[in-house]
Amino acid sequence: MSTEATPDLSTAVEEGQIDLVYLRSLFSWVDYVAFSVLLAVSAVIGIWYGVFKRQDTSEFLMAGRSMSTFPMAMSLIASFMSAITLLGTPAEMYQYGTIYWMIGFSYIPVMLVAMYWYMPVFYHLGVTSAYEYLEIRFSPGVRKMGSIIFATQMTMYMAIVVYAPSLALSQVTGINVYLSVSLIFGVCLFYTVLGGMKAVIWTDTVQVIIMYGAMLVVVIKGVIDEGGFARVWEINQASGRIEFFNFNPDPQVRHTVWSLIIGGYFTWIAIYGVNQAQVQRYLTVPKMKQAQNALWINMFGLFVLLTICSVSGLIIYVKYAHCDPLKAGTVKAADQLFPLFVMHTLGTLKGIPGVFVAGIFSGALSTVSSGLNSLAAITLEDFVRPLMNHFGHELSDQKSTKISKLIALTYGIISFCLVFVAEQLGDTLQAALSIFGMIGGPLLGVFTLGMFFPWANYIGAFVGAISGLLFTFWIGMGAEFYKKLGAITFEKKPMGDCSEMLGNFTTTTTLAPDVVEE
Question: What cellular-component terms does GO give this entry (predicted)?
Fold first, then answer.
């Protein structure tokens, strides 16, 4: 540990001294209580619906198709606007500028197409698994193929969204990252397996409120500390970060209007059009009009959260304009920038860092609970029930519910193990988008083929899905391979090089999962 005197927090950044051991010491028992309350509330909701409410298979997987519009809309937001967004978007703005914000303009066509083209198909069929449609349209084999693709996608994605907040918690508190992972999965499995879909939706609602509240507190305090939004904008503009209308057609450019709006459309329509987790939520309300209204609320919520996260990235740059913590070695990954900023900005306000950590945890819990419930639904309906029917055994409702819970538990354990892979991926935002591009794209293609091309048959669906997967993996994995070789690089916006203050820098750093002090 450094033997230098601990700097005063209000001047630490200006003097180039960032002592992470000191910052971690600011995370007090009040903060632990603040985020522990979130975990307790989630557990209580699970107990309420699991113990005190009647629960059959329909209740466990579909909330009895009796939910109201607002909580379902909140659950739609929570399912895929996770800790990936809360940590990855500010880091994206800090390093590459505001161009990523343009992805928000893809939300409008996505919601329109989802609610008027895809949603009616599932709603009129009244399915539990979205992949039942593929059997009706093509064949049982295509249905099972779609389910396997989705299960692969979701288990990988859940691992990433758990690792990201665990890394954040490690950064601000020093708690081992694997302990955080275990805590998230433990609490999430508890209320998801015990309480079912209603518990998932209502905990999502609570968690979305915490997410928005935590982000707003950080942004408002940050803007005030940096002299107002006009000054934040001016400094970022001077550094070249304010950029919205880059129409460069070069595919080697990291983000352009074309890649964000067109690519963003296909990424999000794969989620809101045919993804099991979202389709399952649509069908928890009794009327399709309610589901469509929920999508409008969801769209507004997505755009607001994207904007809040984007502004936070601009504030982070103003805070560290003279000395980039990545260059200084204070943090090792861009996803750690936001937690570092929070401790500098709010570290002395007891309880507020805990609320921030609760917000990050909320993003992870909501995504994982949604994933587990949807995976239980497709595995029961697409594999277990058909297999039992094949052997002449009809599952009772009680057995179906028990099997669904066991399936959810199993997927949770598998995803927990995949966390050890997720920690090798680095950029969590890019990793999450890559997964949905490589796997979600071909799956979207199969559904679209069935719905809009009446002459297509099961052979075309099979060949199209497999060739699509091979092609997208070739592009996605190839891009990662060449980035590792240095053949593909993305130019970052100017960063402070710490040249004026390097001699004063305290480089006590955190290396997840173990704390390393120099």
Answer: plasma membrane
